[in-house]
Amino acid sequence: MALLDVAAGDSEELQSLVDELNIIKTSANKLLEKINSSMSSCCKCSGSIVEKDWKLAFRGTPGIKKSVFRAYQDGSGIPDDVEEGCKQVGQSLPCANHYRNNEIMDNWSGFSEVALFVYKNNMEVHHLTFDAIDSTYMNWLNKSRIKDSTWTDITSEPANVFSLYGQQKLNLRRTFFLNSNFLSCGDTAGWFVAIDNERGGCSWEKNTAFPVFKYSTANTKMNWNRSGIDTADYFAIYVH
User: Is the model's pTM score more than 0.85?
Assistant: First the structure.
């Protein structure tokens, strides 16, 4: 009888431990869901940027055959319901659209900084931060406003095009264009560009699907034709 009592006691204690573990698991899952949902509104940045809260204003998605510039400018081509994967970074969740935070974009005011982040394999590969004081959502991408960048030469090197609008004429759709120099298709260098069509003027901007986000993988500008250029998985714009 004593042995049975001990066995029963052990069984009850084991069940109690299982119940506690289930409670902990449920709490952990809820916490993870909360963290994932918060990714759409903020991002903790590290490295050369002081850690701070960033609100996601826009995320561009490549290869969906919808203009990233027009989506940013006025929401063109963006459906009313966008996948949750388009509202976050750092996770491999489905996303087939651009994302525009209309509350931020249509009421651009009171921000101290705005940042452009470039991602590859869900990891940040480059970023720039800009002074957002007295800016508009269309003019903050200006070389004179740069406060910090992982491209170390971006403030010291000249820039022939440096704007959201970029170069858009004839068959050129070089938007979000951060370019240093252009002498010819073979002799041109820059830091980042969102190519918004399939048949650009130079071989380095001809693609099977648009948009395509190209960036210099080095910490300096690179010739757009060289091996130091890669394509980003997406880019994001944050404000705070």
Answer: no
